[in-house]
């Protein structure tokens, strides 16, 4: 991508454009890596069906959380 600068000289705009793109990618990359979260379903009570332990309310557990695409739900079964 060549442009004529003042005085008729050619100036290459590719390098400044690539530098801006590289700076933008570096600025965004750390946020993307930290974007996901791990959630242990039921926390210390574990993840069971309603018949095994009827007192666990998973809706109440989930109410305080804001799940996003890429989050992990971890299933921990206790003996």
How much helix, percentage-wise, in residues?
Answer: 25-40%
Mean pLDDT: 74
Q: What summary fits the major beta sheet?
A: 2 strands, antiparallel
Alpha-carbon Rg, integer: 26 Å
So what's the oligomer here?
single chain
Q: What strand line-up does the widest sheet have? A: 1-2
Tell me the overall shape: rod-shaped
InterPro entries: Cupredoxin, Phytocyanin_dom
Organism: Eleusine coracana subsp. coracana
GO molecular function: electron transfer activity
Keywords: Signal
Question: Would you give an account of this structure?
Answer:
Residues 37-79 form the Phytocyanin domain. The structure is a single chain. This protein is α+β, with helices and mostly antiparallel strands and 79 residues long. It has 2 domains: 1-34, no CATH class; 36-79, no CATH class. Helix content is 33%, strand content 15%. It has helices at residues 14-33, 58-63, and strands at residues 2-4, 10-12, 38-40, 72-74. The chain has a two-stranded antiparallel ribbon. A two-stranded parallel ribbon has the order 3-4. The longest helix has 20 residues, at 14-33. The model has no long low-confidence stretch (mean pLDDT 74).
């Amino acid at each position: 991508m060549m442009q004529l600068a003042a005085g008729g000289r050619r100036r290459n705009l590719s390098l400044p454009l690539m530098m801006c793109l590289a700076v933008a990618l570096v600025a965004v990359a750390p946020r993307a890596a930290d974007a996901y979260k791990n959630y242990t379903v039921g926390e210390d009570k574990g993840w069971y069906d309603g018949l095994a332990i009827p007192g666990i309310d998973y809706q109440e557990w989930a109410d305080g959380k804001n799940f996003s695409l890429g989050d992990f739900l971890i299933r921990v079964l206790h003996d």
